[in-house]
Each structure stands twice: as C-alpha cells, then as structure tokens.
C-alpha cells in the first residue's frame, strides 16, 4: 500500500475565519430592531405557546438590557427552542429569571411566526390577483374569437378535429412562451402585447425570477484570458429579450423532435450512424433561425449513452458555465454567461434561460475554433425528462457574418435507477470550415471532431472520473494504489487542473493570456508565450508553449499505449535523460485500464542530478485519447498525498492529444490495432526565464522549437518501427 510519508513530512496550513463586513452590519441591524421591539418583555407567554388553562394574570413589564437582548438574539439564531437546562444557563449568565428567558423565547417565536404569515399572505394575495386578471383575459379572448374564413363568431364545435388539435398545440406553445415572457416584460418595462411578433393574446405570467442583479459569469477553463473577443460581445438589448424567449421555446420543441424522431428525419448512414435528411428537416422545421447562409456547411449528429451520474447533477453541470467549461475542457476552450434571464423555479433549473458565448476547439493548432453567441434554455417535461437546448442569436448581434452558428442543439436527460441517466445528444451547426488543415478534414467531416459523439464520449468519461473520486472500496493489494480518500481526492483535483491547463494551450484558441508568436515555417509549430506572476498554481516567469500536429501511420490505441507506458518513456522524453522511470502511485479513474492518474519517479542515469517526480494522467474515450504530464515538487506532492490543498502546487503541463484520422469501421469510434492512422498533437509548456519582467530571447524560442522537433522524430522512429 502506498504511504503518504514516502517523501518528506507534509506542511499543515491553518486557515482562520473572519467575520465579513456584511455579516457585521446585519448583526447591528438585528440588534437595532430588537431594541425597538423587544426591550419590553412580559413575564407571560404570547401566541400559541400560552397555556389556555392558566388564569389570566396582570402582566408585569421588564425592560431588558442591550447586552441581554444581544445574547438572547444570538442564541435564538442558533437554537430557537432551548431546553430547560439551556434556559437556566442563559438566565445565570444574563441575570434573569428562567421564566423571563422562557417567555422571551416564546414571544420571539410568536413574533417570527406572525411575520412569516404576513409575508405568505401578501404573496398569496398577489398571486390571486394575477389569476383573476388572467381569467378575465381568457374570457375576453373567448368572447371575441372569430372564424378565420367568414369573420363571424367561432364555436369550438364547428372546428374540425385537426383544427382543434392545432389550436390546442398553439395554445400550449403560447403558454410555454408565457411562462418566461414575464421576465422580458420586466426588462423592457411595458407589456409584451406591444411587440408585434408576439400574439396579442399573450399574457404576462411572470415566474417571479427576474435576475437583473446577476453579474456576468465566465468559464475560461481555469485560465486567465487576455485579449478576449468574446468578452467584447454585449448582452441582448431590452427589445431583443421577448424575441429570445420565443426563439428558445421554439428551439426546445425542435430539439425534442430531433432527439426522438426516426425516419424519415434521420436515416441510417455508414458505420451505423444517424444522418440527418436535410430536405425532411426543412419541411419539418420551416422557420427556425432562417435559411443556411452561403458558404456554410451543415453538420448534424445524434448520439445516446447511459452515464453514471444522476439527472440533477447533469443539469447543474450544463447550466453552470464554470462546471460546463471544466467538464468539457477539451471541447470548450472558453465560455461566458452574458446575462441570466431566468434562474428557473425555486430549487432547480426548470425554466432557466441564459444568454451565453462560447468557443469550441479540437486539440490541435491546425483546426480553427468555432465561436457561438447563443441562448441556453432548460426545461423539465411532463414525463420527468429534462432537456437543455442551445440556439444561436447571431441575427441579433450587429457584427460581420458568423463563421459558425448553432441550430437547436443540446441533450435530453432521462432518470434511470441507481443514480444513472440516459442522455440523448443532438449537435446541429452550420459552419465555414474551409480553414481546416487537410489532414484533419476527414475527422471533422465525420463528426468526431465537433459532433454529438465527442460530447457524449467526453461526458461518459468525466462521469466515470467523478465516480472514481467518490469511490470508497479501493482494493489494497497493489503497492502503488493510493487508498487514502483525502489523498485520492487531492491528487485527482491536481490532475484535473493539469489537464485543464494543457487544453488551453494545445488548440487554436487565442483567448487566454498567451501571445502567439510567428509560425516557425513549414513545420507548422505554433509557439506562444505568457508571463506568469502571482499565481500559486504556476511557477513565476516567462513560459513558452509550443504545439504541433502531424499524421502518423499507426493506429491510435498503439500510439496511446506507447506514450502512457513509463517503461517506454526514455525512448521519447529528452528530459528523463535516459533514466529509469518507476510508477510510485496510481489511481484508476475509468473502465479502460489506460484511464488513470500516475505519479512517476525518474531516477536519472546521471547521479549528480536530483530525482524528479512527474504527475501524469492518461485517458481515452470513443473519440480520442490524451497523455498529459507535468514535473512536480517532491515536498508539494507529499502534502497533496496527505490530503493537502493541491491549488498551491506549481504546474507546467505538457503532453499529447491523439485523434483518429477518420471514422472507424465499428460505429465511427477509435480504430483498432492494425488499421488506419492517428493524428498526434505534441504540446510543451516550458519555463524559459524565472523573472517575469525579463525579455524573451530568440534563443529560448529556438530551444523550445528544437525540443519539440526532436521529440516528434523520436516518437515517429519508435512507434513506426514497432508497428512495422
């Protein structure tokens, strides 16, 4: 069994709690109101705590001191119903009779109950008034109904069955729009009937969940952002918000049908995939966000799976921009919530509506990112199924024509027994992908790069990872396995930050604090630089990031196994200097044996060089694989393995992203050994100067460039030779 005392003793950091200024002001206000209303106290109880059998006595008034009131108020917040022992103890401390303490608490409870009832009555009265007004509007609408053909009064019995069905369906859609349209009316400051694109019969039934006090939320995958284009996108105007509500409701309807329909909307394609029938789609959904712009290509895909996570947590991940961008850090390079139009009903996200921007990536500098400006809408349906849908708002944004827009895309989440969920994912975009490098075109066209299969595979792997974090039944037979729950959680949290940081520097995104330098010529090595200061999770100084992608005629699984194996590390890792690499600790975090977090020790062949530790995470799913690593300090890792805070461990991650060079023969997933090739991206982050204010030298760039080229040549020589 692995022991956390393998290295040096851990340091313990004490955290002290300080009362905030707001808490102090709240306490002062409470004390003030108490002196106004509770300083005169009788020695008889009031309200429902009074004994009706007791004979009425003349009340005697006692004025409590400020200190007595403060002490009893503080105790009341912790325990509104003190027992006899607690009352006696309070009376001794405050110089009061036990009965005085008892009656003070009874009166205080009665006072709080009365305040609560008055508040509830006011809410019910307001709701009743709204329902009365709504009922009157319905009556008026029915009395004024006219026949569309002759203009005369319409009777329900004269309508055909199909017409009745259509009217019922329209009413249901109008009601759904109404559920959240009150929010937009609140922003605009006038009733929605003043907008011509909404029906004159729409009423303002507010959810009571306006969120004008919500600030902008950003989920930049754990990295600071630099010259961020997405940040320059402003939120929607007041006049746009009712239109956004309508668009979101229509998108939800489209997503449900796209997720649940079969032929002719979806037809069977090669490799058992679903292919969208474009003609049938246009017939089924003639309106939407308008026709496809010239120069854009349609991508549509659908995938389903069962994941080990309950539906409540899944919905929370999708509706919290920080969790969403963290869980899908390999796909979402940056994201931001511009405005929350509705938080949903109390206690969950049913009805939640938010305007967002996001940038999606493939882990390679050769594939341009895709930016979207969209609304996200969450709804729980009558059968208990949850749905989360995105739809582009590019038509509302005064900017040049977008190179990518999202038609209704998202997922349906169905609750299953034992904490599992079934997820059906739909991705439907229109994109200008002419800038994609030729070696990545088959992958992008197959849908494995940005399609539903990649989203579902990533979600499945992350759910497995989270389940392994919470696991308690860890086998103790392997000496390298970490059995301490605190040590496991800290090490997995550190590895998660390492993976997230790697993903920000491996793709084509320039949103973060990296400055892209000029390309190094025909070798397609993208070099970026950043200055790190006052960041406990990153060493201070100037950091260079270099990344390059290339095709290799070796199946993905063989490349993945070669790169993650510590025994073959000396064949490609120049920094290991030919030393022996040993696995010191191991945490499995998925069904696949390759999905794990390891702590490696490099015993250098040169005895004068101190031993080095390497934190490594390797993971693989149906659409690609990663091997990511970073050198770590021995003392810092000792703290982590003892359950200490991993946020203060400095990391500079490097590693590999391995993707198939096209769809496989078994359902569009990873190609098995013996067929196809791989698209390999190599990315390094290296500290070239420990002084953040120093100037970057050309020699440093040349050194990093040489390092990455040498590593690429070593990998090619090793894996191609083994595959021959």
Automatic annotation (TrEMBL):
Molecular function terms from GO: DNA binding; DNA-binding transcription factor activity, RNA polymerase II-specific; lipid binding
Domain START: 237-468
DNA-binding region: 57-116
Keywords in alphabetical order: Coiled coil, DNA-binding, Homeobox, Nucleus, Transcription, Transcription regulation
Gene Ontology CC terms, in alphabetical order: nucleus
Pfam family, one: PDF2_C
Stretch list, region Disordered: 31-64
Domain (Homeobox) ranges: 55-115
SMART domains reported for this sequence: HOX, START
Compositionally biased region (Basic residues): 55-64
InterPro entries listed in its UniProt record: HD, HD-Zip_IV, HD-Zip_IV_C, Homeobox_CS, Homeodomain-like_sf, START-like_dom_sf, START_lipid-bd_dom
GO biological process: cell differentiation
Intracellular or extracellular location(s): Nucleus
Name by which UniProt lists this protein: Homeobox-leucine zipper protein MERISTEM L1-like
Originating species: Durio zibethinus (Durian)
Lineage: Eukaryota, Viridiplantae, Streptophyta, Embryophyta, Tracheophyta
